[in-house]
Amino acid sequence: MVADSADPDAPPWVFKEATAAFGQVGIMVSNAGADEMYAIEKTTSEQSGEIIQINLAGPSRYRREANNHMMPRNEGRIVNVPSVNGTKPNRSVACTTGKGGINATALDIAIRLSGTKMRGNAIAPGVTDTDAARGRAAGEQEGGGEMLEISDKCTDTTVPSTEPIDQAHAALYFASDKGRAVTGQVIQVDNGQLLRHRPSSTRNGPALPRAAGPFP
To answer: Is 207 domain-assigned?
Structure first.
């Protein structure tokens, strides 16, 4: 089933079709999203609204649908996939707002579902080797490469990027019984790239060379 994350009519249809095909939905991984690299002074209201609809409003509607579907059975797993940008902003204000909102919602879901057999958590990917990330590192993302210099201030690009499977392993942990006692948490999967600030000038010593790898 293919649907637009920003379409407010999509979640009920997706769950209806999924239920018809499989009987029920026990796990929802909310992984849809869009990214861009506009500096705040160059961001338009239209562009910001589109990103917020895809990255925040859309996932919120799917979570609502998941709750309505799972709560009668008192069982289910909801895994959101925002970004490290939600806690360490290095993108546009629209992307940061959306990702940060998803992090907050993971806690909100956990509080709402406390005492049930339902859980809500989130994964915050760092630099992950994908086609989109390679395009972003090359300045091909919407907004170009201007914000890459900003992101370098909080990302240690000398640390190897993660692989998509690393994010999948975190999702599997949250979705399986191995994470049955964990809820309301955001796991940062980034090989430690955002554990510290990377020197960006010679003021405090020589700057580290920027790696050619992709960006989250």
So the answer is: no
Asked if the structure places residue 82 within a domain, the reply is yes
> Per the domain annotation, does 100 fall within a domain?
yes
DSSP string, 44-100: -HHHHHHHHIIIIIHHHHHHHHHHHHHGGGTEEEEEE---GGGTS--S-HHHHHHHH
Q: What does the pLDDT look like over 91-149, one tens digit per residue?
A: 677 888 888 888 888 888 889 888 899 999 999 998 888 887 787 777 777 777 777 77
The domain that contains 172 carries what CATH number? 3.40.50.720
Strand, helix or coil at 154?
A: coil
Judged against a pLDDT cut of 50, whether residue 207 lies above it is answered with no
| Cβ(171)–Cβ(123) below 8 Å | yes
